[in-house]
Amino acid sequence: MKVSMLRSVQSALKRTSSSTGGHILRRDFSSESGPNRKVAVLGAAGGIGQPLALLMKLNPLVSHLSLYDIAGTPGVAADVSHINTRSEVKGYAGEENLAEALDGADIVIIPAGVPRKPGMTRDDLFNINAGIVKSLCTAIAKYCPHALVNMISNPVNSTVPIAAEVFKKAGTYDEKRLFGVTTLDVVRAKTFYAGKAKVPVAGVNVPVVGGHAGVTILPLFSQATPKANLPHEEIIALTKRTQDGGTEVVEAKAGKGSATLSMAYAGAIFADACLKGLNGVPDVVECSYVQSTITELPFFASKVRLGKNGVEEVLGLGALSDFEKEGLEKLKPELQSSIEKGIKFASQS
Ligand SMILES: NC(=O)C1=CN([C@@H]2O[C@H](COP(=O)(O)OP(=O)(O)OC[C@H]3O[C@@H](n4cnc5c(N)ncnc54)[C@H](O)[C@@H]3O)[C@@H](O)[C@H]2O)C=CC1
Ligand SMILES: O=C([O-])CC(=O)C(=O)O
């Protein structure tokens, strides 16, 4: 029973991380003889952190799992460490243990920070989360400057530019190694599209570009596969539901936080893709919010090919429908101002 559950999680990871690009053929690294890879989760005792720790413990590409939070991590680590999979698990609580938690990390996943309550925007989290992200990234620059950073903490549209500025100041910035995790938008777009198009969700691909807040989330249903020729009104509704997916969960949780389980799943998919890229698996493509030149905005989410050094190639937008072209123009001012806000915070504080 346990083995079959593990296999189905592993095969879901394999299937889904075949990405928006749809390339399935690749070497299978799911044996325990792959290279050693240390993954650190910062904020590991939280709503996302705990299920993400579980999913990373199930990933055979991980040899060392480092779970850090300001408190509560020894319990989470002890619990997860009893699972009979490859990785060795260590828990670290408190800032004095952050250096050891980060030492030698190949990937650092950051779901540290406060979540939304009903009525809030992601930008309302800026005042608290900007400082948390800044201090964690300062430590990353010091203790594992070559790690790939998977930023989950909101507002992602600003926290990624903050991280970039911190790394620039420390002299460690490598734009190929910094990622805003927008995978949950892709996960949602796939689920909602499959429901409307009445196709099996496992075979669905939908790129989602732009950023990770409201109208800055732009799903490209014109490029969705398999093709379904949905009426325009349905595309409008699907787009809105994808953009409001986070709010849908925040409202349903009624003050008890935002998406945690689906986010942990999405975070695990994205980290798995990064691990595969590091390990030299070809054609690993996922959407992510990265430094970009595909529009005039300095950071933008689009399909990204992952490789041994992180970003191997930022892929273009492809052909857009008129509705998507309009959405792209609409999102630019908000995304630009969120980027500027992050840069200003990091350079002033
Ligand atoms: N990128 C995305 O798609 C998504 C992002 N999020 C964001 O993820 C973040 C975390 O959400 P939840 O896990 O639900 O929140 P939570 O409050 O349940 O957990 C956050 C954890 O971060 C820890 N933390 C706070 N300051 C820290 C520090 N300086 N160092 C290390 N850990 C620290 C807390 O102790 C707590 O355990 C929020 O900002 C939320 O908005 C949530 C869902 C989706
Ligand atoms: O909506 C939120 O606050 C959390 C989040 O980013 C998401 O679920 O997409």
TrEMBL record:
GO terms for molecular function: L-malate dehydrogenase (NAD+) activity. InterPro entries: L-lactate/malate_DH, Lactate/malate_DH_C, Lactate/malate_DH_N, Lactate_DH/Glyco_Ohase_4_C, Malate_DH_AS, Malate_DH_type1, NAD(P)-bd_dom_sf. Keywords: Mitochondrion, NAD, Oxidoreductase, Transit peptide, Tricarboxylic acid cycle. It catalyses: (S)-malate + NAD(+) = oxaloacetate + NADH + H(+). Coiled coil: none annotated. It comes from Ulmus pumila (Siberian elm). It is found in: Mitochondrion matrix. NAD(+) binds at G43, A44, A45, G46, G47, I48, G49, D69, N129, I152, S153, N154, M263. Residues 182-345 form the Lactate/malate dehydrogenase C-terminal domain. It comes from the Eukaryota. Residues 38-180 form the Lactate/malate dehydrogenase N-terminal domain. Its EC number is 1.1.1.37. Substrate binds at R116, R122, N154, R188. It is an enzyme of class 1 (oxidoreductase). This is Malate dehydrogenase.
